[in-house]
Design a protein that fits this description.
The protein starts with a strand and ends with a strand. It is elongated. It has six helices and 20 strands. The strands form four sheets. The protein has a six-stranded mixed sheet, sandwiched between helices. Strands 7, 8, 9, 11 and 14 form a five-stranded antiparallel sheet that branches. By secondary structure, the chain is α+β, with helices and mostly antiparallel strands.
């Protein structure tokens, strides 16, 4: 199993459960974290979340259509449950026993976080489970209206449990501190790398046009400025995992970076065309890496938390 479709349930137009916490908000958080972690483990993952459907029927049809666009091994629908405050725990819904192993492993892994294990249940009436080409499961992570579940719930831990159920890998045993991806000339977005690995290219004369830094693994408070060819300096302020630092589709190179982390010791270095690798430099909001006014492109970057 190497290709997955993953989506968060419902959307803002077709809201889900909302009591002690909001289903749509949290299923997106968990979905994003699971996708990121699975990609780092080498899986191909497609995000099939629908944010445009205006009715429940449209929402479900859009999700199924997106899922069926890809030849995936498994479809995963992430939800949160509700029952007037009476229920609590995790359950995984499936259409048939074809998915029993994955469903049970995920259910067990989430239960190990302290949630009641409500088990794997067969449901023939759920639209997504019934209509996707590849087998599908629906994870009811826990109950939005349960004080017990609310006290246990953490999006990152929930995502780690789902990943462990799918892969057997406990990401807590080799905890990622920081992840990042680059948009490279003629290649596009690279697969995210972690903790000091090289992002971009060296010796290929391909410009690094943009980067994304995923700060969630260590809850990093990071800020970024970038000097972009033919544009100049741009201040991105505090960044999150979706922030694009640089440009996409404009054939403009990143030429210089100034990163800042205010709650951890982050260092980074860059590979500059015709120059090579810079020294490792602390992300202090003052030091800059690269060049200004020399028309030299950044080609790669490495970032780590020490």
């Amino acid at each position: 199993m190497k290709i997955l479709n993953i989506h968060g349930g419902h959307n803002l137009k077709v809201p889900g459960a909302n009591k002690l916490f909001n289903e749509v908000t949290e299923d997106r958080k968990v979905k994003d974290l699971v996708i990121g972690k699975m990609k780092l483990l080498g899986y191909t993952v497609y995000d099939c979340t629908d944010d445009s459907g205006k009715t429940q029927n449209e929402n479900l049809k859009n999700i199924v259509s997106k899922c069926n666009d890809h030849a995936a091994d498994l479809n995963i629908s992430i939800h949160f449950n509700a029952s007037n405050g009476q229920g609590h725990g995790v359950e995984v819904l499936q259409y048939s026993n074809k998915t029993k192993t994955a469903a049970q492993n995920i259910c067990n892994a989430i239960a190990q976080l302290g949630f009641k294990n409500r088990g794997v249940k067969e449901r023939k009436d759920l639209y997504v489970l019934k209509h996707t080409k590849a087998p599908a499961i629906l994870i009811e992570c826990c109950f939005c209206d349960s004080t017990i579940d609310a006290s246990l719930y953490n999006a990152d831990k929930m995502a780690n449990a789902i990943v462990k159920g799918l892969t057997g890998v406990d990401v807590n045993e080799n905890k990622i501190k920081i992840a990042y991806a680059g948009h490279v000339q003629d290649i596009g977005w690279t697969t995210p790398v972690t903790d000091g690995a090289t992002c971009g290219s060296v010796g290929k004369a391909k410009r690094l046009e943009a980067i994304k830094i995923d700060t969630r693994y260590s809850n990093l408070a990071m800020y970024a400025k970038a000097h972009i060819a033919n544009v100049g300096w741009k201040d991105y302020g505090k960044i999150n995992n979706n922030a694009v630092i640089g440009t996409v589709g404009q054939s403009k190179a990143l030429e210089c970076l100034c990163l800042n982390c205010t709650n951890a010791n982050v260092v980074y270095r860059v590979h500059l065309a015709n120059v090579g690798w810079s020294s490792w430099t602390k992300a202090d909001g003052v030091s800059t890496l690269g060049s200004v006014g020399q028309s030299l492109q950044l080609e790669a970057i490495e970032i780590k938390v020490i």
